[in-house]
Amino acid sequence: MLYNAYEMQRSMLAGASAFADFSAGILSNPANPFAYFGGGPIMGSALEVFAHASAPRGKPAFGLDHTIIDGRTVPVIEEVVLRKPFGQLKRFVREGVSGGPKLLIVAPMSGHYATLLRGTVERMLPVADVYITDWRDAKLVPLADGRFDLDDYIDYIVEFLDLIGTSGDGERPHMLAVCQPSVPCYAAACLMSADKHPNRPKTLTMMGGPIDTREAPTAVNTLATERPFAWFEQNVIATIPATYAGAGRRVYPGFLQLAGFMTMNLGNHMMSHWEMFKHLVQGDDEGADATKDFYEEYRSVCDMTAEFYLQTIDVVFQDHALPKGIMTHRGRTVDPASITDIAILAIEGERDDISGLGQTKAALTIATKLPAAKKKYMMAEGAGHYGIFNGSKWRTKIAPVLEDWMAKHA
């Protein structure tokens, strides 16, 4: 019923958005006298804000068709290296450029598409051969393709690393985990280290990841722990309706995740839209477009399988299994002490309201047999959660540290 109610509301808002956009176009048309005086400009701007806020959205494109290397423009082509039911491994091929460190960027499966890391990929393209996990919207995966949980997530990472490591020059890849995948990436590193896997990562960088959510708990952590596990099963899991390929699949809907994030900072989001309205009224299209671009990506959400979401709540947020040393993968203990030669870089944002200070740093503490020379911690001053991997602080302060770390442990 929850998903059907959402679909009904989405359909109605889509119609209202289209009508508002059409009306805004008329009110701002140079041929319309009301575009120059009276309440025309204000009404048109208000309708444009509403149209943008209520418009339906699909999966965005990366749109990265070139990069700059040594002062010259190099074409970039997106290539799908491996397709799997719940995600694909994508590579950004730099035409005419060979060599360089191979970097697997593991995007979060937390309600947004991998394109949320567009800025992360763009910044690393000049210096690395970049791959990314492009997770699929669970509502589009037929039931016949089976289930997907935290164990499967770890299996995907191991398989992707193995494929990247065996391609080209056979060099071990580097891995960057942004937020949520820090735990499965760390687990994969533990398992591959224990097996002396030839393609285990050379370095593992984690940014704003919930390794130990007992450290500086945030509102997200509190939400996951103040209610019993059964509450999540009963209240936030929905069934995909018949209109989608994944009909019948149980999921944690992306629209619920988005609603939660919007509610956490409702005042800020309202002010952003107010600022966008003022930009439009003043004719500052560039200022308004910056806000539009952010929300275009932020509101593009996808569903997670129920089993993955619930296992993450249980293992990561309620049991704290990884830092306690009791996490298992298909019955096998995930032992942080097995990491002995994977250089770990932990990055946190000073103002991160999703993963508090100390949660990612804990990854260094529990790797008890990793030499100190292979551990590094960075606290990005003034950076919030999204500022760790996007924006000017990421480009000018954080990315250079990651580059140096990869080069040092090449």
Question: What are the main properties of this structure?
Answer:
9-stranded mixed beta sheet; 14 helices; 42% helix; 410 residues; 3-stranded antiparallel beta sheet; alpha/beta
Order of helices and strands: HHEEEEHEHEHEHHEEHHHEHHEEEHEH
Q: What would the average pLDDT be, to the nearest integer?
A: 83
Rounded Rg: 22 Å
Name the helicity range. 40-55%
Helix segment count? 14
Number of strands: 14
Structural class: alpha/beta
Distance between the termini: 52 Å
Subunit organisation of the chains: single chain
Shape: globular
Low-confidence stretches: 19-24, 44-54, 269-285
DSSP strand content: 15-25%
Largest sheet: 9 strands, mixed
The main sheet orders its strands as 1-2-3-5-4-6-7-13-14
Task: Report on the architecture of this protein.
This protein has 410 residues and is α/β, with parallel strands linked by helices. Helices cover 42% and strands 17% of the residues. It contains 14 helices and 14 strands. The strands form 3 sheets. A 9-stranded mixed beta sheet has the order 1-2-3-5-4-6-7-13-14, with helices on both faces. A 3-stranded antiparallel beta sheet has the order 8-9-10. Strands 11-12 form a two-stranded antiparallel ribbon. Strand 13, helix 13 and strand 14 (375-380) form a beta-alpha-beta unit. The chain is globular. It starts with a helix and ends with a helix. Mean pLDDT is 83; it is low at 19-24, 44-54 and 269-285.
